[in-house]
Amino acid sequence: MSEQHDAASHETPEQEPDFARPGERTAAPRRTIPEHESLAETAYQIVHDEAMLDGNARMNLATFVGTWMDEQAQRIYADAFDKNMIDKDEYPRTAAIEEHCWRMLADLWHAPDPSKAIGTSTVGSSEACMLAGLAFKRRWQHARRAGGHDTDRPNLVMSSAVQVCWEKFCNYFDVEARFVPISEAHKTLDGHDLEHRIDERTIGVVAIMGVTYTGMYEPVAKIAAALDAIQAKTGLDVPLHVDGASGAMVAPFLQPDLEWDFRLDRVHSINTSGHKYGLTYPGLGWAVWRDASLLPEDLVFQVSYLGGRMPTFALNFSRPGAQVLLQYYTFLRLGRDGYRTVQQTCQDVAVHLAKGIAAIGAFELWNDGTDIPVFAWRLKPGHTSNWNLYHLQERLRTKGWLVPAYPMPDALTDLTVQRIVVRNGLSMDLAGELLDDIRTETAYLDGLEAPMPAEGLHSGFHH
């Protein structure tokens, strides 16, 4: 008996029960690096368990960012964890694949001659938007100087519902942001009132294919026509950038006849997120210009590549190359037919959910998911004073669903909406479970005999 006890007392940490090892028996440090090493298994378990508290990413209906890829994509990802996208000398095939991808996008978006287009991968759409904004600003500066004018006080015109990256661009690069407020009558930037915000210092206008707040397309052709009319009246030739973070990878497949891209001469550049409806994991965006002449040469750096020179235009330096390979894999794996099938399935689920929520009786749809597979709703005016959409948001969170409620932007800040983003991976079966939970929690809230407390409630959306 004593021999058995003596042997047990000398067990190595690897032989101890998993959650009784050194490191698991005490809280992990939060503010300082520990003095001593731990077993790889122990460190893994601590990090895994803490990240587990985030919840299930596929039940996060707030994010546009992809949360599912197939097994082959995961293998490609793992094979390329160590590749740095900026090292084009060391990883020339990854650099070549990056070019394959943006040329495919130039073709998808109807560039007049994709061989004359130019583009780049980025960390996400935010970087791509900033690059497009910089190209606008630099071209405007060159034109002003050539005409003997000053280059002070440039401005950029956009909807009040733009993603916050555009506000950051204007802040970081000293550009005045001129917002056109959305309203009940004008739910998106639609060309209305543009002439009162555009002048000789306007570097460009941003149109959104898939407004982050609601998922609605802004009518790019209508905005372009308004700019044509302004040019005819004033002589001001103002270019368009299309922020297609989501819609640029949906519209070509679900609304192929909709003119929003390089078919409109006024559209200089387009960005999209590979990691949204491009269907890759997080960390990838794309920016494409219809013609290399629209990207000022003094913004482009030349790097050595395959014995020659390759242009590069980016804000970030070192960044993962794996996501670029994932995008190429997805293009090859799905093709246009596959993308059409995936996006149509997502839209079918979105429309099904929208109809189901509209039928509950407590809500009014702001839009119905027939642009990108995203829609928003609000409480019917006068329906109840006992609860609001923030309460429904919290009730759904207890079931594991993240369905954000938030105020609309300037001029509509007194209006609160709730939004669902349908991504690849939200099946019709899961959508049915979600709809049942929304019905159940709405019935619970409608059954209250007194108002719910409002303390501690907050917006579930910060973009």
From TrEMBL:
Its EC number is 4.1.1.15. Pfam families: Pyridoxal_deC. GO terms for molecular function: aromatic-L-amino-acid decarboxylase activity; glutamate decarboxylase activity; pyridoxal phosphate binding. One of its GO terms (cellular component) is cytosol. Residues 1-24 have a biased composition (Basic and acidic residues). The modification N6-(pyridoxal phosphate)lysine is found at K276. It comes from the Bacteria. Its cofactor is pyridoxal 5'-phosphate. InterPro entries: Glutamate_decarboxylase, PyrdxlP-dep_de-COase, PyrdxlP-dep_Trfase, PyrdxlP-dep_Trfase_major. One of its GO terms (biological process) is L-glutamate catabolic process. Keywords: Decarboxylase, Lyase, Pyridoxal phosphate. Residues 1-37 are annotated as: Disordered. It is an enzyme of class 4 (lyase). It catalyses: L-glutamate + H(+) = 4-aminobutanoate + CO2. NCBIfam families: Glu-decarb-GAD. Belongs to the group II decarboxylase family. This is Glutamate decarboxylase. The lineage of its organism: Bacteria, Bacillati, Actinomycetota, Actinomycetes, Micrococcales.
